[in-house]
Amino acid sequence: MKTLDTLRTTMRRDQVWEIMVPKTGLELDISHGTILYLEDISVTFDGFRAINHLNLYIDAGELRCIIGPNGAGKTTMMDIITGKTRPDTGTAWFGQSIDLLRLSEPEIASLGIGRKFQKPTVFEHHSVMENLELAMAADKRVWPTLLARLTPEQHERIDGVLETIGLQEHRARRAGALSHGQKQWLEIGMLLMQDPHLLLVDEPVAGMTHQEMDRTAELLKSLAGRHTVVVVEHDMDFVRSIANKVTVLHQGSVLAEGTMDEVQNDPRVIEVYLGGGDGH
Amino acid sequence: MRLGTLHLDRGGQIFLLLLALTTLLVPVLNLAVPADSPLHVSTFTVTLLGKYLTYALLAIAVDLVWGYLGILSLGHGAFFALGGYAMGMYLMRQIGDRGVYGNPELPDFMVFLNWQELPWFWQGFDIFWFAALMVMLVPGVLAFVFGWLAFRSRVTGVYLSIITQALTYALMLAFFRNEMGFGGNNGLTDFKDLLGFDLQSDATRVGLFIASALAVVGGYLACRYIVTSKLGRVTVAIRDAESRTRFIGYRVERFKLWVFTFSAVLAGIAGALYVPQVGIINPGEFSPINSIEIVVWVAIGGRATLYGAVLGALLVNYGKTYLTGVMPDAWLFALGGLFVLVTLLLPQGIAGLLRRKEATA
Ligand SMILES: Nc1ncnc2c1ncn2[C@@H]1O[C@H](COP(=O)(O)OP(=O)(O)OP(=O)(O)O)[C@@H](O)[C@H]1O
Ligand SMILES: [Mg+2]
């Protein structure tokens, strides 16, 4: 009986077999000006709903800040975009044509979504330059990697990124010997080496000094436009210094969206978040 | 080969220089210097050195996967033994009708088991190039299949080490069985000649010693080429932060698979050079303790330097020869003690000590 049921479901005439469905185009299409569509996404962990009917749209080239109390689901949202976590329901599209929920983590990374994790992870035993070299967009199969030599253009590219992240003087240093802030910049540099369309940056200034924060703000602002940048951050001063548009997440869905001032004056936000004494 | 391979490798340069000197000097001191001269090097010593060199190559193979890729293989003895068996099968076939039973077709142990014909898997082993190919292919294919299964299911760390031990242990039990067709617990022995050269002659012994030295140089340069390439930087990245490496777009499993397979091939070659020099191969070579010993050589010599692995293999095995001569029972304790001491006091091994000296000088 069970076999019959399986057969019935597989042979359903109102559906096409999964394998017959053409893989959606892998060219990023942002002709409508929106680079990321998250619609009606929900995720449940052991009965706990970490993301709850989330809708979020990101415009191409914008610098968006996402704030929200601890456990609001910010990191989980990034996990969904990068393919690390699969949502129970909902859709996630990268541009008009790429269905993120059908792709694996490496596929998504190679399509141009770069992510910086909450905890900085650089390759400690490699030099700053080698870290950038490893992250560089290139043929990453085994043989081509064995035979790979840096071309003059690639050298220039690495130099360019070193300049952007302000680590020119440290290029030959072991990454493990860098300060916390420098590691964070290096990690952003590693993202840039992959030439991503969309950068997801989780808590970039946690543990940074004020000076380092200012430099990070400059860095992220300089990236917007050429790249689309989504920043998750708790530090309100920092968010204020970089954001045009802020999205507030709360209990897995969007509570408010707008400029920093609009958001801060929204009574619901004041109640659940800023009023809660969590912001400062 | 690219210039960078030996660039900035002081230890490697010194090691290659010393090895070249030894390789030039030893044959002369053995063949040209009369036996009663104090400078004469006996054939026994030549063969002993040759054997140490095959261990050195084995240690390089282990250092490649352990030091640069983070895979603590406790089963490399299996690849070494398989290469040895492939060579042993060739040597058995060379005996021809000079065996005890004088059977031109079958090795003695098969006659003893009342077998009528040569099993299919012995076919072709009378041809040197075929046997030489198998020396590399058999360990390589086994490592490939094993690695494909293990790495794809993301088995790592101590679990991986344990299954590599299980692999060599299982092979040992299999090779102990007579019906496997590899001579059971006696293994393969009584070899006569290789490519027509008498294995007992001084010149052949010297030849094997030189071949071993060349294999060590070749293996060293090949591994050095790998670890100084971008691929080497990827493997170290895998060693230090595997999921991060995967995340920036490298197929970690494939990298592990190819490097592991290459390392197994090197181990197989080492085994093939070992067997004609010691004159026997038996299932004892698969014993788990052998594989652990290799790791100890590398740890003592210093991980992730390659020349440290050579140093460790030579020193420990010299110590073993010496100690088992004077106090046979003490060896395992000495080895264990040495391992503990080095792990506690010299986590980078002897090579690390040398490097530190160089840095402070
Ligand atoms: N793999 C998981 N298994 C079970 N629960 C999880 C898992 N990942 C996240 N959660 C839960 O989902 C909720 C959302 O977590 P998430 O890490 O997305 O929050 P966040 O907004 O990033 O918080 P923070 O500001 O502290 O980084 C939390 O309650 C967390 O405990
Ligand atoms: Mg988080």
Reading the helices and strands of chain B in chain order gives: HHHHHHEEEHHHHEHHHH
Largest sheet features of chain B: 2 strands, antiparallel
State the separation between the terminal residues of chain A, measured CA to CA.
62 Å
Trace the largest sheet of chain B across and list its strands: 1-4
| Mean pLDDT rating of chain B | 91
Q: What structural class do helix, strand and pairing data of chain B support?
A: mainly alpha
Order of helices and strands of chain A: HEEEHEEHEHHHHEHEHEEHH
Shape of chain A: globular
Q: What is the makeup of the main sheet of chain A?
A: 6 strands, mixed
Number of helices of chain B: 14
CATH fold-level assignment of chain A: Rossmann fold
Number of strands of chain A: 10
Could you walk me through the main structural features you see in this protein, from its secondary elements to its overall organization?
Chain A: Keywords: ATP-binding, Nucleotide-binding, Transport. Chain A is an alpha/beta fold and 280 residues long. Chain A contains 11 helices and 10 strands. Chain A has helices spanning 2-10, 74-81, 105-111, 128-135, 142-147, 152-164, 180-193, 210-223, 236-242, 260-265, 267-274, and strands at residues 34-45, 48-59, 63-67, 89-94, 98-99, 113-116, 198-202, 228-232, 245-250, 253-258. In chain A, the strands form 2 sheets. Chain A has a 6-stranded mixed β-sheet with strand order 6-7-8-3-9-10, with helices on both faces. In chain A, strands 2-1-4-5 form a 4-stranded antiparallel β-sheet, covered by helices on one side. The radius of gyration of chain A is 21 Å and the shape is globular. Chain B is globular. In chain B, the strands form 2 sheets. Chain B has a two-stranded antiparallel ribbon. A two-stranded antiparallel sheet of chain B has the order 2-3. Chain B has 361 residues and is mainly α. Chain B has one domain (3-360). The longest helix of chain B is centred in the middle third of the chain and has 27 residues, at 202-228. The mean pLDDT of chain B is 91. Chain B has 14 helices and 4 strands. At the A-B interface, helix 3, helix 4 and helix 5 of A face helix 8, helix 9 and helix 10 of B. Bound molecules: adenosine-5'-triphosphate and magnesium ion. Magnesium ion (MG) binds next to helix 2 of chain A.
